[in-house]
Design goal:
The chain folds into two domains: 407 residues, MFS general substrate transporter like domains (Growth Hormone, Chain: A, Up-down Bundle); 34 residues, no CATH class. It is 77% helix and 0% strand. The protein has 20 helices and no strands.
Length: 459
């Protein structure tokens, strides 16, 4: 591990570089919304093939998420992040140079594999290097990076909307953050919790001293060591009676984040805006850029207030806002075509939905699944939770256009509204407040058999 000078800013630098994986996550999932409009000009695409091109990334992410935990536990968080960078580079080159739809699909599946592993490893790595009082904001840097990546993808989509072979350039810009991630991770330390788990105590001590900018880290070291007193590392341990409740919680959070409709907006925003009345590709993509801007701004708000206001208030408020926005959007499409200004109301509903999602489910899912699992099963359990997220992401994205054709936009968005109601009830009764509590204390509460809603209690 390269030697670096102690600095109180080191923890922010480490978190920002690791969050580049989130930027790639956002860019490579968002770029398809505009690129799809131009791919279909070069290739004859059915509705099912369009859905497949969009969801191929999600298919790769879903498959790799099951392996992410074991890979991260075996190789270390830092080594896996380097592998992710290489996969992003390979997949991006294949997709952007592809002479056929088949190779576009192959490249995007490889990108999806990188996203699936990165969506697990990046927030986990940040959570394990962050001090408890900064953990919420630092882990949410990953979510901020995702939103910046989405915004960047929309801007690139718009910038190249009038160029020949524009979709190739759109894809190719993903090479820049992929290379930066790889270069940055070369200089970062390994997670001190992973080092302790692998009995590399001296190295863990040095790493913690650098990250905390102090020499006395004995208390934190002892806390981490004590969390291994009951260590059982077999995969089946994640299904044991004491872990099952938080495993269920993590899987449900992944389910809720997706079935409330976020990626119907992210992946198909230009399509939705064309349906609402923004008919040409450039204007619908430009309207989509606005989504990226408010997504970033609302995520910045979440970063500043997750540790101040707490996870639960933001989560519940956001879900209410999402449900109200989707209900309004359904009403707009019911009357669409009768009043010309309804397209602007549709845009307002979409923006409100994105804002509500960004400061709630968008930031809190990745933060909470990095907090709620005991250390010795964290890798495997987070893998299950992330798999749930990507499975439902794939299911929603691969069926959205078909649902629109079958049910129409009004009934489709009403269905997502209903899922917001169900999600609110689940989160109100089951989701804990974890702000300001150490990961080891959360684990102790889980072992003590506290109810899910209470596992974030400091005492």
């Amino acid at each position: 591990m390269p030697n670096t000078t102690q600095s109180p800013r080191l923890i922010y630098i480490v978190s920002a570089i690791a969050a580049m994986a989130g930027l790639l996550f956002g860019f490579d999932t968002g770029i398809i919304s505009g690129a799809l409009l131009f791919i279909q000009k070069d290739f004859i695409l059915s509705t099912e093939m369009k859905e497949l091109i969009v969801s191929s990334v999600l298919f790769g992410a879903m498959l790799s998420s099951l392996l992410s935990g074991s890979l991260s536990d075996r190789l270390g968080r830092r080594q896996v992040m380097l592998i992710i960078s290489a996969l992003f580079i390979i997949g991006t080159l294949i997709a952007s140079l592809a002479p056929s739809v088949t190779l576009i699909l192959l490249g995007r599946v490889i990108i999806g594999v990188a996203i699936g592993i990165g969506s697990y490893t990046a927030p986990l790595y940040i959570a394990e290097v962050a001090p408890k009082q900064l953990r919420g904001g630092l882990v949410s840097l990953n979510q901020l990076a995702i939103t910046i990546g989405i915004l960047a993808s929309y801007l690139i989509d718009f910038a190249f909307s009038d160029y020949a072979a524009s979709w190739r350039w759109m894809f190719a810009f993903g090479l820049i953050p992929a290379v930066l991630l790889g270069l940055g991770m070369i200089f970062l330390p390994e997670s001190p919790r992973w080092l302790i788990k692998n009995n590399l105590i001296a190295k863990a001590t040095l790493t913690l001293q650098r990250l905390r900018n102090k020499t006395d880290v004995k208390h934190e070291l002892d806390e981490i060591k004590n969390s291994f007193n009951h260590q059982k590392t077999a995969f089946r341990e994640i299904f044991s009676a004491w872990v099952r409740p938080v495993l269920f919680l993590g899987a449900m959070l992944g389910f809720i984040q997706q079935v409330t409709g976020i990626n119907t907006i992210i992946y198909y925003a230009p399509t939705i805006f064309q349906m609402a009345g923004f008919h040409d590709a450039s204007s619908s993509i430009l309207a989509t850029v606005g989504i990226g801007v408010v997504n970033v701004l609302a995520t910045v708000f979440a970063i500043f207030y997750l540790d101040k206001l707490g996870r639960r208030p933001l989560l519940l408020t956001g879900i209410v806002g999402m449900g109200a926005s989707l209900l309004c959007l359904a009403i707009v499409f019911y009357f669409n075509g009768q009043v010309s200004f309804l397209r602007w109301i549709a845009m307002g509903c979409t923006f409100t939905f994105i804002i509500s999602f960004a400061f709630s489910l968008g930031a809190i899912l990745w933060l909470m699944v990095s907090e709620i699992f005991p250390l010795e099963v964290r890798g495997a359990a987070m893998g299950v939770a992330v798999f749930s997220c990507w499975f439902w992401n794939f299911a929603v994205s691969a069926t959205f256009l078909s649902l629109l054709h079958l049910l129409g936009p009004t009934l489709t968005f009403l269905m997502y509204t209903l899922m917001c109601v169900v999600s609110f009830l689940f989160c109100y009764y089951k989701v804990p407040e974890t702000s300001g509590v150490t990961l080891e204390k959360i684990e102790a509460n889980i072992r003590a058999g506290l109810a899910l809603r209470d596992i974030g209690q400091p005492r």
